Amino acid sequence: MSQATSDAKETPLQRVASWADDRLHLAEGSRKYLRKAFPGHWSFLVGEIAMFSLVILLVTGTFLALFYTPDTTLVIYDGPYVPLQGQEITAAYDSTLRLSFEIRAGLLFRQVHHWAALVFVAAIVVHLLRVFFTGSFRRPRELNWVIGGTLLLLAFGAGFTGYSLPDDLLSGTGLRIGYSALLSVPFIGPLLGYLGLGGEYPGAFVLGRLHILHVMILPALLVGVLAVHLVIMVRQKHTQKRRPGATEHNVIGEPLWPNQTITMGALFMFTAAVLSLLGGLFEINAVWLYGPYEPFEVFAPSQPDWYMGWLEGLLRLWPAWEFTILGVTIPSVFIPSVVIPGIMFTVMFLWPWIEVKWISHDTAEHHINQRPRDVPVRTAVGVSSLVLLAVIFVAGSNDVVASDLGIGLQTLTNWLRVMCFVLPAIAWFVTIRMMRRLQAQSVQEPVSSTADDVSSTTDDASASTT
Amino acid sequence: MTTDHPAVWLRRSGQVMVALAIAALFSAVVAMGATAQDPDVDQQLVQQGNTLYQENCARCHGGTGLGVVSDEAAAGPPLINVGAASVDFMVASGRMPAESQYDSLQRRDPAFDDTERAALVAYITQLPIPDTMTDEEIEAAGIPLEPGPGIPDIRGWEDSDLGLGRALFTTNCAACHGPTAAGIAVGRDDVSSNLEGVPPLQIAEAIRSGPGVMPVFGEEVMPQEELEAVVHWVVNLPERQSPGGLAVGRSGPVSEGMIAWVLGMGLLGVAVYLLGERIGTTDPRDDVEAGDGGEA
Amino acid sequence: MSTQTSPEDQQLQAARQKRASRVAALAFGISILAGIALVVVYVNGGDTQAEGVLLTLAFGGIGVGLGVWVKVIIGHELVIEPRHPMRSDASDRQAFEEEFDQARDSVGSPDRRRFLGRLLAGAGISLGLALTVPFLSLGPIFSRGARDELFETAWTSGKRLVTTEGQEIHIEDFEPDQIATVFPQGEGTPADSQAVLINVREGRLMASAMPDPDGVVGTLVCYSKLCTHAGCPVGLFRASEGQLICPCHQSLFDVNAGAAVLSGPAGRPLPQLPIGVDEEGYLVALGDFSAPVGPSFWNMTDHSGS
After folding, report:
1. What's the whole-number mean pLDDT along residues B213-225?
2. d(CA C206, CA A188)
3. Where are the domains of chain B?
């Protein structure tokens, strides 16, 4: 072999690399990626927090799955937690208690897993907002916007199935409400309920099915869809923030090797560190205090994890509108738990096209991010939606808020109903005004952005002629 | 309970007071089981109770305990046959005397000492239904025909079954007081009480008498051993250590979500801010390295 | 990195990098120690808080080290990559189209392609259906009683009311303002049969507002415990006002008036369980609930099918 002459000077790393390249022809294809440009504005790193949280979820989740049993058979608890000793509980709840109290580092892993789930969805949401308010979803990235939204939905699903598994009183309550939403669908609700649970609530197979969804189907989908998300991102290259030198025809950023690689390594470590800190020092979901699930028991306050708070809020705010037309009843749960979320996500998924059709009429390719002020209407839509969601979110814990503020529960709920209309409207006008004012200011202090506009219009021309 | 410190009180008081204190001790023991009209009730204690009652309670509850129906601040329910547990609970927890009928009846420092409370219990529990009232009038006034529950005896609570208490608490109490008995809004303007630090006897009295909007859990639904077990669990709750770490607020997912956002996303926000580029703070034009990507 | 820096700048830069190296070394050192300590803690029985903090130090140490390394020692560096429109060149598109069409034409004449293509699609749909149908096994939708299940509970006439501990309830045992969760005797605790027995205050009960005015015993009244909104147990009882609240979404029901909805999102009253007293003085059910229990569903007003 020709390489034999230089073998003497090769380090072990080089030897491995040579071995791999000899067999897979890697060097040619990989070389250009070493200097791939990563626009490094800090807000671009939030999506990576979500990705790293997912990695930590997979690792800790695998550990937990080695101890958890999705089994509703009743057993007598004889573990170290005194208040439950001698009581009949399900094997699922028993295994959750055992992995919390008897498996070394089990409680740490369980808590890190749960905190990672909360941070995972939070990071997805912040990432989504960044993409929305900077217009990063515009052509050619509409597809990745939809895929990102799908990831958010999958994260909701993974979270819900996850916190339903321990079979404690809180998880059972959440499941009950989820089942009611399923049941409320006209014509097929009861069928869906039967198919989902294997019979009338609580059904015989619930935990087993949630478990398979949670540890196999949803993680596989999450990883698969995330892979597509990333491949498309690499293919389309990153968007970039407007800066001197940035045009629609280049990407300015730190090179993948070494800068971005080390930055990502550091961020992974920080994500793991923060989640370890939360998992070690802050108690989460103390299922031993809640007790085993009994369908006839419940406690107040019963809230879902934060990312389901808006759904809970919708259920608490929606008036008691239930009517029967021609023998078909529309249950009061149906609209807030199925129709409104359905509309919300449809609008979100279709937003790139909605914006083109009614707001921007701009079908050209864009790679330079906008500032929120550049499209005041979009920004106002975003801010108003956020404000509306915030009000609904507060309503999701109206009992906690009412007792903390010393307001009557029904009084608060009625106020929040009004606020659902008032605050988004105020937010709309304030945002529009603010954006217009900022726009006026930036006209007075010219940036090099004019150059971008020119290049993007030429881009339009070239795109339309071909 | 007046059995707590009669000795301390004795030394500081004169002859009359000595007699009163003994009477207080006696009457409290009687009040545990006996009904109000018992002839053994010490009349001197009742007299003291009468005085205290007329000064502090009669304005809202009426001179003979028939209650006052009014739109004014001074309105209150009848006290005839409410039972010793109710009176003792209301006075010991400082909820009574209330400022007005609009008072939200929160836990306060008690206005009366142990003897005075025993006197009030003795007086109120012996208030008779006036002979002149017809059955309809009694019903309309909301006066129970039978005397309410006496002060429960829960001396055995520390030896009771903690597990049974946990299960019973979840079935009967957690719907309003929450899984950690921290209290929560329960409709209208009412908030269920935070039970941390509440003396065991008051917990038992509340269970038996159902103060405010709270339901009653009588002997038949919750026998003595179950009552003691529930008291045990409630007293034990704040002492239970949190193996998972700091339990901030203990209102479950609400505080957990706040920690995830403020601390989790907060710290990670700092991390990305430090790790990422802050365009605008430095002029990047100097640093642009051209050419390398040109051939890609 | 830029090259036109003065000697002072270079010196400053070198000093910064030296300092940063020390910080990174320290951080990595902390990480090593924390890792070792973690093993020691684990072997000695473990402690969630100590493990969490040590894990934070171990990860955080590497994070700080790497961060300092990339931000200070390596420093800021930018590259520019060219970017081309996503759309392929017109010539490439056309070449693709031609090659595709050419290969397609070898499949056969347009008529034959259409004919075979349609049959293939039909076969695909048929196979898809056949493969999907077994998923109906997920629930007992073919069993005889399945469609009745939402309309029926375990309560039948004459069944005694028992508490969750299985205790029967004598008519004289129940004080005013008292509440108990009850189930039909001998049936265990089926979720759809849970009911609340309440002794309301004298003179408050409005019999006319009850679905079954004869299904009450004095001041004793019994309702389904399943909220008609989202199915949570309606466990929160405001005794002095005779109101039940669902702790999940705060629907408020008037116990004295047939459990009508006073506020909140529930769309209909809690179904009433008609009760009576047997010869021995124990409370018994007089039949099933007055309406389907729990959350509403589309065909709940029409149970003619059974």
Report:
1. 88
2. 38
3. 12-39, 43-141, 157-239, 252-280
